[in-house]
Amino acid sequence: MENKLKIGIIGLGTVGTGVVKVLQDFPEIEIIGACVKNTSKKRSVEVNFLTDDPFVIANHPEIDIVVEVAGGVNPMRDVLKTAIKNKKHIVTANKELLAKHGAELFDLANEHNVVILYEAAVAGGIPIISPIKNALRANKFTRVAGILNGTTNYILTKMEQDQISYNECLTRAQELGYAETDPTGDVEGFDTMYKIATLANIVFGKRIDVNKIYREGITNISDDDIKHAEDLGYKIKLIGLAQLDGDSLDIRVHPMLIPVENVISLIDNALNAVQLEGTPVGQIMFTGPGAGEFPTASSVVGDILAIKSEIKTSDYILPLTRCNHHEYANQLNILDTKSCYYISINAENRVGTIGLIGSVCAKNSINLSNIVQKGIKQDGTAQVIVVTEIASERDMQNALTELKEKGIVINNLIRAM
Questions:
Q1: Domain 338-416 grouped into CATH 3.10.310.20
Q2: Model's pTM, two decimal places?
Q3: pLDDT tens digit string along 43-87?
Q4: How many CB atoms lie within 10 A of CB 132?
Q5: What average pLDDT does the chain have?
Q6: Out of 3.30.360.10, 2.70.70.10, 3.40.50.300, 1.10.357.20, which CATH number does the structure's domain 129-289 have?
Q7: 195, 235, 237, 308: which is the annotated catalytic residue?
Q8: 195 annotated active-site
Q9: Cβ neighbours of residue 102 under 8 Å, at least 6 residues apart?
């Protein structure tokens, strides 16, 4: 077939292998070669040639599109810059690279008149970037929030359903292949942070400084927290949130209490979900598999086909996909945000303890909506659960400091969505 679109792939792991398999149904697209760590490893797919040098793909004269699904910042930052300077379009699933160096790469792509597509970088197989930039472009969005990591959602789901500890659930997730041997990127919220940074960039048309995003993982969530939240009518999910607060952007990642009447509370196991709020659409949600060989490959190949549809027809393809904003968002410090709070407390079991907690909160302008003693622990302390009305983070942290000074142990603090 003449005039085939020619691509090179960097990374033949789970996603890259899925891309090759899916592209077998598209004879008009030719995979010139692929970059892998180990060229002698036996693989389930074949390409014309293998190399262990990604710059071979970036510099190859026949390649039209570089598909990067290897991940990481180094050397991929320089590899993609080289490919862009060589006038090659980019399709990537690299959320960390985009979150940390997207501004540089998008500016370079505009300079060299190529596009960078990255549908697979945010929510695996869920189409979200293209709808925001196309079908939903008439909207003025005020909020985007989502479950953006399947590993943490699986762990929290199993903690709730099977009433077992975080460590037990993590071990099970690792045995099933949902969690890496080193799960830090997932369970400490880094993966979600990179994804919400990319989503906020698109939704609000402002560049995001990933270093200013408040991030907290799920490692401190206990099975008691899960149970107490359920008793109060909530579920706990790791959420990436970006919302307007006046002229500023409140963007953060941490476990959140989700009211059971909010449909996102129903998203369990390894599924992902993204909620958008804006005018005129109101609230809308996208959900589906956030990772995996074929769901992610679906998004990658969709981007390849979007480029293919225009690459021979225009000197300036896919204008709606390009990043043309340069201003950075004014990102709020976490201390300047407001939330409702769940606080798990251990305190001496004596008359006046609950009154003390209430008075400290009142002193710091925090109204309580619920306070309940959940029983006496083996060490003789009382376990108390407090739920507040909306309060400022700064006031809350001041109250927690004062409570600790009075001998009260704070087990956990979880903000509500």
A1: no
A2: 0.95
A3: 999 999 999 999 999 999 999 999 999 999 999 999 999 999 999
A4: 21
A5: 95
A6: 3.30.360.10
A7: 195
A8: yes
A9: 198, 201, 207, 323
